[in-house]
User: Fold these one by one.
Assistant:
Number 1:
Amino acid sequence: MNIHAFISEKVNQAMLAVGAPASYKVQVRQSVKTKFGDYQVNGIMTIAKQLGVPSYQLAEKVISMLNLDGIARKVEIAGPGFINIFLDSQWLATQIAIALASPRLGILQYSPQTIVVDYSSPNVAKEMHVGHLRSTIIGDASARILEFLGHKVIRANHIGDWGTHFGMLIAYLEKVEYDGELEIELSSLNNFYRHAKKNYDIDPNFAKKARNYVVKLQCGDSYCLQMWRKLVNVTIVQNQKIYDRLNLTLSQDNIMGESMYNNMLPDIVTDLKAKGLAVESAGTTLVFLNEFRNKDGKPMGVIIQKKDGAYLYTTTDIACAKYRYETLKADRIIYYIDSRQHQHLLQVWTIVRKAGYIPETVVLEHHMFGMILGKDGKPLKTRAGITVKLNDLLDEALVRARCLIVSKQVNVDLIELERLAQVISIGAIKYAELSKNRMTDYIFNWDDMLSFEGNTAPYIQYAYTRIVSIFKRSTLNQQQLTGNVYLENEQEYFLAVRLLQYEETITTVARYGTPHVLCAYLYNLAVRFSSFYEHCPILNADNDIQYKSRLQLALLTSRTLQQGLNLLGIETVEKM
Ligand code: ARG
């Protein structure tokens, strides 16, 4: 149950009942301090001012109309007009039982939307680097959560598989195939790209051939298309290995690269011209947008076709957005791209709205993010000053996780050790990413992410294994857990409240694409469990009723931790 939504609804009903206009909304929040109850209503003071009545009096009237019978044990006014709500233990206990009885932990499915999630989207003939890590990991968590809530999620991997640089890449592919060096060259796509570029820069004959191949490729020449396909395939296969290593839900079926929209581009340009949105100026086609201004204050011109006929990244994104609405029938389109492309997206959206390609009812969102920085505060690089490749990063994480497990003397055989190292390393990297507010840059730090203390994956995974071990030592199995749940102790009570805030947490994450909110939730849940376990003996409970009640709380905690981590794309293990 979404307690937050329920209380908000009730409070707003009470506001209407006391005569406040419907547009005057108060905010309900989870209380930060326990003395303020479990939820707090804010905003009464502002509304009282607007209505010209004393705020305390308004708060009193709202409380008299507020029907939280059975749910709240106490509702009180704090300060000049805050309302503090304390939940009722018995009601909480009933909700715990309901959650435990359901495989979805009592979480409802919402009226389903079709949601396109654009994420990962690396470029062909280049290796994925840490820059793609955020989009890939946050996008995947977001897709999982939306799907869990019942939406139809279409994962769109908008790979950069088209553009004029393919002339150079094809010419180089041809050269290394001829020289018999294909294998070596393709083993490192970054080198391949660099060598191709070098040949292009220093060898005029090579450059001429490359330019010729650009034209041929665009005209659908079968040889060039075949060579292009080869490059795309090699990249896709390499990337898929990384996706699988990272335990992502992305597959090759999700690839909808730039090339897919190529055939639509001429019509888009013609249409934008016919609608008077695009104009030609000295052979270049542009859309002038009043919403964006140049340095000199004039409307900005966004180029959609160059003099030589080539289309741009923007043109492709216009076609792509149109396709997602018209063909994929998206109600909502979310882009996980770094913040440097924000203006680009805003321009694309302004154009698709003006052209009438996408109605206002369809939501377009840029869930942007900052950069991953090294300890020096600059974009993360290797010691040699090169951008860190994802594969190398994952290798290092694995080595570090193995050392960590060995140093902790976890009693496992070699096969288990490998599996554990995998789960811990991938979990740590993903969680480090997911637990930060995506809007900010963050400093990459191995020690922090692999720590068993604090807001880390190992801490939460470990909390999960502790509960597993309680059940191993208990005489009861999960089916035998009958009887009521009793929240007698304050630790039991606070654990129960937190457990029941799971739904509102994932609803928030689904709405704003902020997995760090779920991370903070799971971390806090693990902390509350720890304090509960310390103060409320389970296996040595006073009596059978208490024993079963506490085991039920432990069980719901372990299920919530496990499901929550899974929604983030992180696995659990039974012992560590
Ligand atoms: N390939 C781009 C890059 O690596 C990201 C593409 C994001 N998606 C989009 N629809 N533009 O920067």
Number 2:
Amino acid sequence: MQTVYQQRRQDLMALMGEGTAVFASAPMAVMHNDVEYNFRQDSDFYYLTGFDEPGAIAVLAPHHEEHRFVLFVRPKDKDKEIWSGRRLGVEAAKAALGADEVFSIEELDAKLPDYLKGGDRLFYHFGHDAALNGKILRHWQRLLASYVKRGTGPTAIADARLLLQSLRRVKRPEEIDLIRQAVAVSVKAHNYAREIAQPGRYEYEIQAEMEHLFKLAGGGTAYPSIVASGDNACILHYVENNRQMQAGDLLLIDAGGCIDYYNADITRTFPVAGKFSAEQRILYELVLEAQLNAIAEVQPGKPFNAFHDAAVRTITAGLVELGLLVGDVDTLIEEKKHKAFFMHGTGHFLGLDVHDTGVLRNADKTWKPFAAGNVVTVEPGIYVMPDYEPVEGQPAVDDRWRGIGIRIEDDVLVTDAGPEVLTAGVPKSVAAMEA
Ligand code: GLY
Ligand code: MN
Ligand code: MN
């Protein structure tokens, strides 16, 4: 497995020129009243090292003669390990993580300048750790102050995250394999959720059963699960999940598992009692049509906005046909009138982060194209707020439409042969949603 991380570091160093990069692991788990809450590794750090501990720094120094990959890690400490878990330690880290040199994190201030000095730039992401940000900045300023005497050293700081995104946006085979594993358990959970959801049960019961399956697979929950019945489906980030489901409700479930930090992100919407109302069915079919049209645009070379545009066009035209919007479709799209019913984007990259890294536009405002190896969610929706009020020039909507919220979300791998719907194991036809 180390060769995988080594390859990633090499590919990154090829982009760095004579710069030095510093990546920090996520800070320690949060303590509340003596209870330690879960630690979650920083995705960039994990991508480059596969190391799952807090309190570590990775330095990439392609210009250095011997030490191109240097790690600073927490030293072994018997007492602390009794309380907070095992540490790899300085001795073992070299072989286990393939580092050219490993130091205790306590030596960071003493050793880091040596590595920064040889580079012409510093790549670092100013994240949430204010103490570390300050430390890195001070090292850089000190080296800058002595630059005139040396004539070498970093004269600028560039964002390390932006540097790395160009690699992370194209998933490697081992990453796609992990996403497939996360998808597999999520597919199972969604299919099980449809089996057990029925009037009288509580949203949290469905959530618990799904998250139980994620955990049983050796994984976890990718993001706070949304199990939203009835009107709750119109709240995009509804997470209370405490309502008792009623006959006549739709149930919108946006939930995914994660395996080894790689995520799945799936939404399905179905009638709790097994039959769509006429209005629910019409809007469901429209969202499904929009989603299929959007998926068809997820092709290598197509600009990133094409799939959203396809979804917006389908939904806007459909809403006009239903009389929920009035006007010329092109004008309505231009004026973004669809946002009254479809107020979010159609998707995002997916990977180590649920909303994965990846710059979407070029400096000239054109959209970057999809490339084989991208993984993106496709998740259009229609939400008719219970208290919907039309903007000027648009019609009021009939009560029968109100409180309907529908989203359909799949995870799609861009391949040279076209879009591969990784989450196809959860059906989404009207017939399957009523089964
Ligand atoms: N579940 C988060 C999202 O769909 O973006
Ligand atoms: Mn989602
Ligand atoms: Mn999503």
